[in-house]
Amino acid sequence: MQDENNKNKPKLDLSSNRIAEIEDENLVGLSSLTHLHLSNNSIYHLDAAVFESTSQLQELYLARNLLIQVPLALGKLFKLRHLDLSSNQIRFVALYLHRTFNYDLS
């Protein structure tokens, strides 16, 4: 059963699309987006300003990609409550990641 609170929240699922890179302009116009699924791609890099137009983002799924560091772009997502970076090759975690939200780096 779907959670009533999540029913009308704007979501975008781009999982399993062989995406390698997300650039600044790719998310322009998605200012009300709250959930973004980018898992199971080949993402190795996210531009530093990629999430500037998605300030409402609350959940971000980047599991099973090729990331080796937590993207600096995440530091501007002040409403982010859940971050999934599992099954990447993360070697560096920036200090801002220790904010009060749930994240998975396994």
What this model shows, in words?
The protein has 106 residues and is mainly beta. It has one domain: Ribonuclease Inhibitor (Leucine-rich repeat, LRR (right-handed beta-alpha superhelix), Alpha-Beta Horseshoe). Helix content is 0%, strand content 18%. It has no helices and seven strands. A five-stranded parallel sheet has the order 1-3-5-6-7, with no helix packed on it. The mean pLDDT is 85. It holds the Pfam family LRR_6. Keywords: Leucine-rich repeat, Repeat. InterPro entries: Leu-rich_rpt, Leu-rich_rpt_typical-subtyp, LRR_dom_sf.
Describe how the helices and strands are arranged.
Elements lengths: L10 E3 L7 E2 L12 E3 L7 E2 L12 E3 L20 E3 L17 E3 L2
Parallel strand pairs: 1-3, 2-4, 3-5, 5-6, 6-7
Could you describe the largest sheet, including whether it forms a barrel?
A: 5 strands, parallel
- The CATH C-level class name: Alpha Beta
Q: Which structural category fits the helices and strands? A: mainly beta
What distance lies between the first and last C-alpha atoms, to the nearest angstrom?
A: 27 Å
Gyration radius (Cα, Å) is 13 Å
Number of strands: 7
Shape, per Cα inertia axes:
globular
CATH topology: Leucine-rich repeat, LRR (right-handed beta-alpha superhelix)
Helix content: under 10%
As laid out across the biggest beta sheet, the strand order is 1-3-5-6-7
Overall pLDDT score: 85
Strand content is 15-25%
Spell the H/E element sequence: EEEEEEE
CATH architecture: Alpha-Beta Horseshoe
CATH homology group: Ribonuclease Inhibitor
Please, how many helices? 0
- Unreliable residue runs: none
The tally of structural domains comes to 1
Pfam families: LRR_6 (PF13516), LRR_8 (PF13855)
InterPro entries: Leu-rich_rpt (IPR001611), Leu-rich_rpt_typical-subtyp (IPR003591), LRR_dom_sf (IPR032675)
Keywords: Leucine-rich repeat, Repeat
